[in-house]
Amino acid sequence: MDSAPVAHRFRSYADLRAAGLSRRQITRELSGGSLVRARNDVYVAVSAPDAMKTASRVGGLVGCVSALALWDVFVQERNGVHAHLRTNGVIRGPDDGVVRHWGRLIRAVHPRSLVVEPLDALRQAVICQSPRAAIASVDSALNKGIVRQDELDELFAAIPARRRVILPHIDGRAEAGTETLVRLMVRALGGHVELQVRIRDVGRVDMIVDGWLVIECDSRAYHSDWQTQLEDRRRDLALAERGYVSIRPAAEDILYRPEVVVEAIAGMLRAGRSGHLGGLTRVRAGNS
Prior knowledge:
Elements: H1 13-18, H2 23-32, E1 35-39, E2 42-45, H3 50-57, E3 60-62, H4 64-70, E4 81-85, E5 98-101, H5 118-128, H6 131-143, H7 152-157, H8 177-188, E6 193-199, E7 203-209, E8 213-215, H9 220-223, H10 226-241, E9 245-247, H11 251-256, H12 258-274
Parallel strand pairs: 4-5, 8-9
Antiparallel strand pairs: 1-2, 3-4, 6-7, 7-8
């Protein structure tokens, strides 16, 4: 079933005429810059995302990570515009900035659609990205309701067998891709992770590791102003009062300096397990 909003569709010349535009008005819209002729009989609003215009110019649909980004789903791989090409797609040189995807789609698209359906975009992104980034994208799509939990079997049946090993690691409770990436780091270090835990008089935290280490994944978008940072510091004090230790790795470090974040978490876990944090123990009852 097609789920593309009207804004994700192009119009043909006949569509424009049927909408009441005269030939002169269409020419005026094109010359005035409010309408773009992407290719023969494909007209796109100038306000449409650049990925749509680029994919249309090569005879394709926005796909893979480029499509997921349109829905604000987490993606880590962003090299060029990813487009799904139909068999009659325009073949251009390797310098046109388009990463091409081929093959049969899981979901049929509207004849005027500029974007593949979410399940197909996610399938392509799972193949195109690293396993960790792929898990984060699936988590994000589930959390945002872009795909449903009951669609996962269909999704993973359509990807290569070597990629299906990530299925047990999917968890749609993660509210950000960086949370997924940190969760995977912690589990690789042997830590036990609880997600989206509510602590009395503190609120909900991203994750608790081994019952005592709180990890909050901060991004500039939501933690840049002083008032928010002040609230974060007060939450940390409230956590400390209740016997928790908290760290806040920045999104930039999680994404681009993961080794630093891994070493920091590993150091904390070593200290906790060796008793260097003062024999810290957690009694969960009454604290969450």
